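Fresh eyes needed here. Have a critical look at this protein's tokenised backbone.
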Amino acid sequence: MNGAALAVSLGDPAGVGPELIAAAWARREADELVPFFVAGGPDLLAQAAHSRGISLPITQIYHPAEALDCFDYSLPVLAGIDCDYHPGAPDHAGAELALASLDEACRLTVAGEAAGLVTGPIAKARLAEVGFTHPGQTEFVAAACGVAAEDAVMMLAGPQLRTVPLTVHIALSEVPARLSAELIVRRARIVAQALRQDFGIEHPRLAIAALNPHAGEEGRMGDEETRIIAPAITTLQAEGLHVTGPHPADALFAPRARASYDAALCMYHDQALIPLKALDFDQGVNVTLGLPAIRTSPDHGTAFTIAGKNQADPGAMIAAIRMAGLCAMRRMGEWEF
């Protein structure tokens, strides 16, 4: 990939993020990863790699452009910020490093000095202790890009499925009141545009899930389908988008159904994440749509209980780096990977 490398933030240093970044670099050739650099933590990464038995040469760099010169033989890491490695034992110093790494990686990406951003898994409660005020990394990156939080759309993507939760981290009891035809239309437009721009799908097919069992059974199990979801679908179809639904969620993720769409828009968090994690847990990627910058993240958490024990699977981290690279190349017109 010409021009720039990807920026990767560490995530919480006590979690599995650092060791999985090391494992991803070790598999860079086998998994055809584009060049990336890590925002800080050179000593931390060396120790994390050692915990997995990985020989990890590290080159400390001072500008993202230097990453392209050394990536083939060593992991480029921005110098200047670091902390001790205490896997499974999150602390204040680690939270400070996690926030500093995220901030620097995000800043460089928004400035165009990195081709895209891959964020390691964080512990939000720990970050809040050191001044992190956003609900999550998605909102943090959106704010850095100057995009309203409601226009930063979370998509979970794996080899077998792409899903979008239209409502995310709210109580299930609040979902019906949060849904509106306007929300569905706005998010569906963003998803369709991203599938064209970043995933190379010229005519994206969107399937929209129902909220209630059996799609409400004509109002006998709820009226959100006829009152909210169906009008949104009609609007989107009138705009020329290939949109179907409302589909009963219990049948939407069967193999035959999955072949009929490129992304499924779901009404709430677990409706979208359960099928994705059941099918693609070790290769699931969290992609933020609707931003001028590319941002991906492995679809798993810090996994403190297994950090440093050589048990965490690097598949999702590798998939997140690979997907960010592919999206960046499409945007740059370099789709020859």
